[in-house]
Automatic annotation (TrEMBL):
Any one Pfam family match given in the protein's UniProt record, by short name: Annexin
GO BP of this protein: response to cold; response to heat; response to salt stress; response to water deprivation
Cellular compartments per GO CC: cytoplasm; plasma membrane
Binding site for Ca(2+) 3: 298
Keyword set, alphabetical order: Annexin, Calcium, Calcium/phospholipid-binding, Metal-binding, Repeat
Family: Belongs to the annexin family.
Gene Ontology MF annotations: calcium ion binding; calcium-dependent phospholipid binding; phosphatidylserine binding
Taxonomic lineage from the root: Eukaryota, Viridiplantae, Streptophyta, Embryophyta, Tracheophyta
Residue sites binding Ca(2+) 1 per the record: 24, 26, 28, 68, 254, 256, 258, 296, 299, 304
Domain notes: A pair of annexin repeats may form one binding site for calcium and phospholipid.
Source taxon at top rank: Eukaryota
InterPro entries: Annexin, Annexin_repeat, Annexin_repeat_CS, Annexin_sf, AnnexinD_plant
UniProt protein name: Annexin
Amino acid sequence: MSTISVPAHDISIADDVEQLRKAFSGWGTNEGLIISILAHRNAQQRKQIYETYASTYNEDLLKSLDKELSNDFERIVHLWALGPSERDAYLASEATKRWTKSNQVLVEIVCTRSAHDLLLAKQAYHACYKKSIEEDVAYHTTGDFRKLLLPLVGTYRYEGSEVNMTLAKTEAKLLHEKICDKCYNDDDLIRILATRSKVQINATLNQYKNQFGKDINKDLKEDPKDEYLALLRATIKCLTYPEKYFEKVLRLAINKTGTDEGALTRVVATRAEVDMKTIKEEFQRRNSVSLDKAIAKDTGGDYEDMLLALVGCGDA
């Protein structure tokens, strides 16, 4: 867990709410005050702030933030202010309704969350959008993409530590046969990725490498421009090495010509309270530069300050 929150006994929710109200008052918005409060409160504390703000001022804090802030800073504050399950529902809805074949956000959400967290996100989706995420995914996607995404979204994986090695060897062989035959949309291939526990999938893919001498994702790079294969590789990376997946998203977001603020914002907001420390270590290992330095070089102003506070390099 990231150390971004202040111990509960050291803060007053009522004071936070009053200070946030002050940040919106007068001629200008006090962005620094907003960052100093929200970036250093955990999910439970932010939920209390949100509820207390509504009962005190009869206003929605998110709407007040959206009205007062703009651009990338508004986006990161908005995503951070949401609870984890509401945030996932919001991002899933966006990704589904604006779906393109290169969009990997849905896979990112459904394959890196725990079974329980995914269930909470699906319940939040029901509450927010009055329909199921499965319904929207089925409606907005097509072909092989729908065939892969729908079972991934609909699954409730077992999360115990048990591994069946006999099954791992059998299914590694099965996966290799399907990939050799270029049956990338095969029912069994999708079934294994969509239903097996993450530890079982890890065991199967280790067997794959042991038996056939290559990582499965190397064998799935037959056509680097094939967007379905890219989604399949992202699925496997998210299920097995989420920190490597997120490091790559951040690296591509920061290092390419022009920053991909959408990806940078999403990963920082969704992983700050989960595994940001591991992602930062992976980023340093892979790029020989710290994530905070890379962010500081590529961003500016209040947006940069909020990002750095959330990755644990600001005033935390």
